[in-house]
Design brief:
With 364 residues, the protein is an alpha/beta fold. It has two domains: 167 residues, Rossmann fold, CATH 3.40.50.720; 185 residues, Rossmann fold, CATH 3.40.50.720. The protein contains eleven helices and 18 strands. The structure holds nicotinamide-adenine-dinucleotide. Nicotinamide-adenine-dinucleotide (NAD) binds next to helix 5 and helix 6.
Amino acid sequence: MIIGLIKEANDPRVALVPANLAKLKPSGIEFIVESGAGANAFYPDEDYAANARVLGRQEVLQQSDLLVSVHPLPETDWPLLKQGAILVALFQPFADPDIVPALEKQGIRAFSLDMIPRTTLAQTMDVLSSMASIAGYEAVLLAACNLSRYIPMMVTAAGTVKPSKILVLGAGVAGLQAIATARRLGASVEAFDTRQAAKEEVESLGARFVEVEGAVDDRGAGGYAVQQSEEYLQRQRAEVQARAAKADIIITTAQVRGRRAPLLLPAATVEQMRPGSVVVDLAASTGGNCELTQDNKIIRHHGVTIIGDSNLAARLPQDASLLFGNNVANFLKILFKGDVPDFANEIVRESCISVKETESAPIA
Ligand code: NAD
């Protein structure tokens, strides 16, 4: 089988790094790589050439049995594909409802890396977690660079500066990495998440979990959330807003798959923040957690800098590609049984978004 790797149009990352090719090659895979595919992530053609043929884009598109990329291959490239070619990428069918019908119409079998079930078995293939972790780390560094103040406490001959307060809203993978990074920088960190399980994780990283007294105990509910009273939820929301108004940096990461991101930070709260403060909104691409966020823009409102960026992993392209590549390589290892996708495997079944197992699409 020939696996092709192409250069991303608008992202410095690359879906496989040279070390992945060296590991996968003994299993009989032949690799072809578009010239310059890894250049923006600092993986030069020469490093790929040890285990691949480095070709022009058109040749890669025409000769590959399977093509891997970070973002979906542009539709303008589809007519060049071999009959029965398979695509592997982050298709995000929940965010782009047109993608599956378009792939089906062309008879292209596609596996979407974001649809891999988030089970223990699939952890090594979980690109969402790898990229979210980088984004959480990068969000804090970006905020620090835009903050008009120190993050750690500073005791100097000229005076003492108090540590900054950082509030993290949404304590999933990105939020927890943001907390860990903020703690390492010496910030005083608070966090909130609607999942009660997040409380323990937040506290284990040395941050305070924002909560109010009077929650219905959910410990007997087998890990499921229990309905809290409206009065409790209102007090909880008020507490989060009060903490937000006092924060120097707010990192928001709350997402609900397939839906608009929850609005957690109204403009009125931002207006109460001290000028010179910073909001980094990682949910910008799905509408933003902050009412004022503009996707892919940095704006200033009442002296507060608001950064809307859901693709922060791309700011660390070398390590992001390394981890993305490892995730993809682990997925490729289980994808096939002989020459056909192993649909008996739940991970393969769940991640296939078009031309599924019941339909026929033999590899060329
Ligand atoms: P995500 O990116 O979908 O959301 C980020 C966080 O926002 C989540 O923790 C969510 O609870 C929170 N959130 C949603 N609505 C909110 C609101 N209104 N207010 C505050 N917070 C809100 O989530 P994620 O980071 O991809 O992962 C979430 C969970 O899944 C974590 O517990 C993580 O450990 C778990 N997970 C498990 C595996 C695995 O077992 N393989 C892999 C990845 C993630």
